[in-house]
Amino acid sequence: MASHNDQPVMKRVLSRTAARELTPKEMEQVSGGIHTNTVCTFDAKTNHADGDVGEC
Amino acid sequence: MKIVIVAFDNDNHTAPLKWALEQAGFTVVCWAGLSWTDQQRASLSLGTSTRLMLGSHSIDPGDVIWIRRPSPPVHNPSVAEPDKNFAEGEYRWFSLSTLYFLECLPVRCINKYSASRFINNKSVQLFLARNCGMNVPGTLMSNSPAEVKAFLKESSNPTVCKAFFPHIWKKEDSEALAVTETFEITADMLPADEVLTYAPAIYQERVVKDFDVRMVLMGAAVFSYSLHNPRGSLDWRQDVGQGLVIVDQIDTPPEVEKAVLAFARSAGITFGSFDFAVDAAGNWWFLEVNEEGQFLWLDEFNPAARIQEKFLAFLTLPEGSSKEAIEKQQPLFPSWKDFCRAPAREQVAPEQYVGAPILSIEP
To answer: Which residue of chain B is at minimal alpha-carbon distance from A18?
Structure first.
């Protein structure tokens, strides 16, 4: 997380600042090549999520 | 007795479990939740006799209702614009009336809707877990900058920050994604006070763990699985999605099992997926429970787990059946791998369900 005691940048929440950006390989898996379809997956092309959102 | 699953029949757990139950000779019906469409309508009669219809299915004494994943109520989109708010509210209230009413009937609910709503609160979970004798990391839930700063200052252990609910951010002009993840935080990493008021968060003492445990509660029985992830991530969930977790069945320490069963009694749940972190001294630390938690991925990673068969045995045996009874009954059912090989799997329509606003588009 880059932010320290400076001014709020773009008024983003802390969890977004620290969110994990997916790597291209991870993106590929999350977008369809995922190893199991029983944990939450997200299709970046259609914006559809499946699985239990509580476990994404 | 029939099994009623409250979910769409192409839900990722409903499809394989419905198929497996039918293979074993059980009658299974699905109802996805209240909607204006034919199959998702409901009727509740309270006259000389009581009758509940979910779609075309009557709910009868002795039925087993698995409230797997009710979809949010949907009103008829053709309703006049000035009446939409009213219709939406009426659908919401009738949906709640239906789900809570199941508890009034002589049926077995897994879980009772009231219990599921109660225990889905992380504050309740941590409080009950501690009261039932489980190890619980010191925790602060807050949007008060002063409280957050004091907690981080006073904590003698490293601290993590996590969200109450997962979220995904997507760039509007690309497919790049960012997902919420538990992250370590220290006092000198804190942003300006105002940022801490943008969204409440959970601040928790970090358990220095050897490995994680996913435990599945089934009535009077618990089944535990160690999760080793080679990357040593704070949160294994994303690693599961990437196929990076090793799953092994392990024994549950008797004191942990006793505490979990006490927790279940307090919460009123009979089914749930529990997460623990196990430290170097072998202590199990309660992190959370998801009463709608997924479990078939355990079979995907370790077919010897046979969690699908265990769950179906739990579902079809009398309430309160022992672990031994569940394990004795489980050979009655086909496995997750059997489903994966079956033509039935190819016939399952893709899911198109977003159960909560977990997605934001950002510039």
So the answer is: B183
Question: Which pTM value belongs to this model?
Answer: 0.87
Contact A56 B168 (CB under 8 A): yes
Structural domains of chain B in order of their starting residue, each with its CATH number: 3-110 (no CATH), 138-206 (3.30.1490), 209-332 (3.30.470.20)
B240-279 pLDDT, tens digit per residue, is 655 668 899 999 999 999 999 999 999 999 999 999 999 9
User: Using one digit for the tens of pLDDT, what is the confidence trace for B286-311?
Assistant: 999 998 778 888 998 899 999 999 99
Q: According to the model, what pLDDT value does residue B240 have? A: 60
- With CA atoms as reference, report the closest residue to B52 among B31, B27, B25, B21: B31
Provide the ipTM: 0.74
Q: Which of A9, A12, A28, A38 is the best residue to mutate to test the B interface, defined by the most B CB atoms within 10 Å of its own CB?
A: A38
Integer CA distances (angstroms), B121 to A13, B124, B221, B232, B290, in order? 21, 5, 23, 27, 10
